[in-house]
Amino acid sequence: MAENEAAEGAQQQQPPQVQMRVLGQFIRDLSFENVMAQKGASGDVQPDVNVQVNLDAKKRSTDHQYEVAIKLNIESKAKELGETLFVFEIDYCGIFHVEGVAEDQLHPFLLIECPRMLFPFLRRIVSDVTRDGGYPPLNLDNIDFVALYRNELARLQAAQQQQADA
């Protein structure tokens, strides 16, 4: 009998099992502007690609559901001339069911783990659109979402410190 009570006590002390399911994914907004073609220019150029990443997460009205968005702004310029080749903007979202994550860990979970799940699909879209737009497919490097999250926290803390000092 004491063994059963000890086993029940051990089960109660364990943190709840983390559950995450992707309920859906969609493109909220997408824009691809082929600047070079609009100018009538063509030819071989060496591109310089700049990728900016923004993340956002918000609670949905249904319990344990969250919407996570990855926003990419990609600009490709010719290295020699500095002229813009193309501009690509995408807002890619996922709807997630998340349970068992401690309240103090929910924010980093939503902005690190959820984007990791979405990224391979987003990478494919970027590759397809750039290829269909007349350029070699742009295969994005992996994004370190942990570093991105830490950099954003550091930026927010620095901004708060500046406000406090002012």
How would the blueprint of this fold be written?
Elements lengths: L1 H12 L5 E15 L1 H4 L8 E13 L5 E14 L5 E16 L3 H30 L12 H21 L1
Antiparallel strand pairs: 1-4, 2-3, 3-4
Helix pairs in contact: 3-4
Compute the number of helices.
4
In CATH, the topology is named: Bacterial Protein-export protein SecB
Strand content: 25-35%
Could you give the order of the helices and strands? HEHEEEHH
Q: How much helicity do the residues have?
A: 40-55%
Organism: Falsiruegeria mediterranea M17
GO molecular function, one term: unfolded protein binding
Subunit structure: Homotetramer, a dimer of dimers. One homotetramer interacts with 1 SecA dimer.
Family: Belongs to the SecB family.
Folded structure, characterized:
The chain is α+β, with helices and mostly antiparallel strands. The protein has a single domain, classed as Bacterial Protein-export protein SecB, CATH 3.10.420.10. 40% of the residues lie in helices and 35% in strands. It contains 4 helices and 4 strands. It has a 4-stranded antiparallel β-sheet with strand order 1-4-3-2. A hairpin with a 5-residue loop joins strand 3 and strand 4. Helix 3 packs across helix 4. The longest helix is centred in the C-terminal third of the chain and has 30 residues. Its main location: cytoplasm. InterPro entries: SecB (IPR003708), SecB-like_sf (IPR035958). Homotetramer, a dimer of dimers. One homotetramer interacts with 1 SecA dimer. GO terms for molecular function: unfolded protein binding.
